[in-house]
Amino acid sequence: MKCNICKAEALVKLRAHNAAFCRDCFLQFFSRQVAKGIEKEHLCTREDRILVAVSGGKDSLSLLYELIHQGYDATGLFIDLGIPVSSQAARRTVEDFCAKHGLRLIVKELVEDGLDIPTVKEAIRRPVCSVCGKLKRHYFNRIAMEEGFTVLATGHNLDDEVARLFSNTLRWDLSYLASDGPLLPAHGRFVRKIKPLWRLTEFETANYAFLTEIEPHIAPCPYSPGASFTTLKGVLQRLEYAMPGRKLDFYQGFIHRGRKGFEHLAQEGGDPLHDCPECGYPTSGEDLCGVCRIRHQVAAFREAQCSAS
Fold first, then answer.
1. What phi and psi, each to the nearest 5 degrees, are found at residue 249?
2. What pLDDT digit, counting tens, does each position of 253-307 carry?
């Protein structure tokens, strides 16, 4: 198998693009896809200060590495969830990676605020994955705002985005369908959020990480087995195997044609935002934001434990 570009021995074959690449040509292809995704959707400029949420996985580390490679002003942010073994290993991976490449990194430990995931899981009687996601989104936005960043970037790839779109379509979630896409503009105390890897599959980011010698944290979260996204990704992967390129066509079609049909419906049924009286960040709830409510529930749980003992 020969590289389509330079005719050297190919290392990566991409059925969706009907192409095969050697190492150097694949890395150029990857960079072009990131640049094209940023340019087509006007995600950011080189004047922006970009905060990249890094988990230790291949996608977020690849994103931070590639943005720096392309000349963007990017800094990593790691949220230490306090999960025994898992969080420690992921944090070590991120810190070693940033030290090796001389990259800036901010670390936020949720245990400082009494919101580490083991504590929250014990106090909250609901699926921990949704609570974890809510906490991470809150701190991503809060730290970006407080530290003066103009953009928050996440490493969501095409597989992530298509699975989310599919899930929201199955539930006809109008609010999410109206805002789904690689760009969520800044609004009030919400910083602009972008997903520069939206044109690249998980397979492609895995190859990028391997060929650039990025060593990601690969152990799954101990709380994640049974997550619905795993099932949806499997369904979509079988579709992609039978019809190469359909995932990108589906996602691009939604962004450019489908999403507009949901915008006015979501606006009509959407809840107005107000500032949380405790933390000051926007919420659609009647009073406290979701994170402050979690904080109160954890405090009440601890008080009950103390009383019982």
1. -60, -45
2. 999 999 988 887 655 555 678 889 999 898 877 789 999 999 999 999 988 888 7
CATH topology of domain 24-270: Rossmann fold (3.40.50)
State the Cα–Cα distance between residues 195 and 181, nearest whole angstrom: 8
Length of the chain: 309
How far does Cα 83 stand from its chain's mean position? 19
Give residue 134's identity as a one-letter amino acid code.
Answer: K
CA nearest neighbour of 135 among 307, 305, 308, 297: 297
User: Against a cut of 0.90, is the pTM above it?
Assistant: yes
Q: Which residues of the chain have pLDDT under 70?
A: 225-228, 265-271, 309
Residue 124, helix vs strand vs coil: coil
Residue 74: C-alpha distances to residues 66, 67, 151, 227, 231 (Å)? 10, 7, 9, 31, 33
Summarize pLDDT for 108-120 with one digit per residue, the tens: 999 999 999 999 9
Cα distance between residue 213 and residue 194, in whole Å: 25
Q: Whole-number mean pLDDT of the chain?
A: 93
Q: What distance in Å separates the CA atoms of residue 124 and residue 120, rounded to the nearest whole number?
A: 6
**How do the domains of the chain map onto residue ranges?**
24-270
Structure-token pair, residue 206: 């895995």
Neighbours of 131 (CB within 10 A): 21
Sign, Cα dihedral of 292, 298, 304, 307: negative
Backbone angles phi, psi at 77, to 5 degrees: -130, 120
Whether 132 contacts 294, CB under 8 Å: no
For 192-249, give the DSSP string.
EEE-TTTTS-HHHHHHHHHHTT-----PPPTT-TT-HHHHHHHHHHHHHHHSTTHHHH
Residue 214 pLDDT: 97
Which value, to the nearest 10 degrees, does the dihedral of the CA atoms of residues 225, 227, 231, 234 take? -70
